[in-house]
TrEMBL record:
Recorded family membership: Belongs to the CobD/CbiB family.
Gene field: cobD
Location(s), subcellular: Cell membrane
Keywords: Cell membrane, Cobalamin biosynthesis, Membrane, Transmembrane, Transmembrane helix
GO biological process terms held by the UniProt record: cobalamin biosynthetic process
Pathway the protein contributes to: Cofactor biosynthesis; adenosylcobalamin biosynthesis
Organism of origin: Stenotrophomonas panacihumi
Stored InterPro entries: Cobalamin_biosynth_CobD/CbiB
Identification of the protein by name: Cobalamin biosynthesis protein CobD
GO molecular function: ABC-type vitamin B12 transporter activity; threonine-phosphate decarboxylase activity
Parts of the chain that traverse the membrane: 52-74, 152-171, 286-307
Lineage: superkingdom: Bacteria
């Protein structure tokens, strides 16, 4: 079977993202967030079964709709199915948005406007930004770009290319529920267990492909070394490889203590080399963009190989 519709799906979704960015009005993921919150308000119980039921009701109906539409379009034309998958994948990725948020931080740092830099980075990280100095702001933004490059770009591409529209919908909605319910707090420790574990499973392969992508496009030897030695020290099984390899690829120091909820929490060091700066944030964005281009180029080569 030709891989050209698959290439059209990935390239089409990225092109739509570059040209249009995130929808400014009526974003479907905003509506999903409201639906998920309604379910949590009405189904919450302090045990795992309730969380499993809420996850299933939140995600599976939309995956089913995406699958039925793709099946119907595929019977008509593979190209129509590819167009549908590209639209779904476009809604799932956030490459342009990631770059815009990161550029706001880098620009504020470059003009030495620390209050503006703290405000900008506060839109993309969950830590207390008011306590951060310029280097810590740059490090926080760089970490966010590297991790969200995996979550909002490469993992969405992986599942969208593998399973089409249903894969893109499944991944993105699962990722949102992890962000909403996957906290290890007294309220969500059991109710959010399913959301957190499913997101871990869906991200396991994409995270390691992302780490490899960063290593190939950056300083390869340091990236692989940091991945091997530092990733196991990170509490997240997927963020560890991504951020360790990304920090090594950029030859920058990340990780270390960070403030959350009014207290500084110890975190392992990541990477090696120079402290983070405005330039580091920009290079992290280019690493993610270069990775997306590399994935499309790899698909194009596979298509050429399949036609010879």
């Amino acid at each position: 079977m030709s891989l050209l519709p698959l290439l059209a799906t990935g390239a089409g979704a990225l092109l739509l993202d570059v040209l249009l960015g995130e929808p400014k009005r009526a974003h479907p993921l905003v509506g999903f967030g409201r639906w998920a919150q309604w379910l949590a308000d009405h189904l919450y119980r302090d045990h795992r079964a309730a969380g499993v039921l809420a996850w299933a009701l939140a995600v599976l109906p939309w995956v089913g709709v995406a699958a039925v539409v793709q099946w119907a379009l595929w019977r008509w034309s593979p190209w129509a199915a590819a167009a549908w998958a590209a639209l779904a994948l476009y809604a799932a990725i956030g490459l342009r948005s990631l770059g815009e948020h990161a550029q706001a931080v880098a620009s504020a740092l470059a003009r030495h406007d620390l209050p503006a830099a703290r405000e900008a980075v506060g839109r993309i990280v969950s830590r207390d930004t008011g306590a951060l100095d310029a280097r810590q702001v740059a490090a926080a933004a760089t970490e966010s770009v590297l991790e969200n490059g995996s979550d909002a770009v490469f993992a969405a591409l992986f599942w969208g290319l593998l399973l089409g529209a249903p894969g893109a919908v499944l991944y993105r909605l699962s990722n949102i529920l992890d962000a909403m319910w996957g906290y290890r707090t007294p309220r969500y420790l059991r109710f959010g267990w399913a959301a957190a574990r499913i997101d871990d499973v869906l991200n396991w392969i994409p995270a390691r492909l992302t780490a490899l992508t960063y290593a190939l496009l950056g300083a390869t030897a340091p990236a692989l070394r940091c991945w091997r030695t530092q990733a196991p020290t990170w509490k997240s099984p997927n963020a560890g490889p991504v951020m360790a390899a990304g920090a090594g690829a950029l030859r920058v120091q990340l990780g270390g203590p960070a403030p959350y909820h009014g207290q500084w929490q110890a975190r392992p060091a990541l990477g090696e080399g120079a402290p983070a700066s405005a330039d580091t944030v920009r290079r992290a964005v280019w690493l993610v963009r270069g990775g997306a281009a590399l994935w499309c180029a790899a698909l194009a080569v596979a298509c050429l190989g399949g036609t010879t």
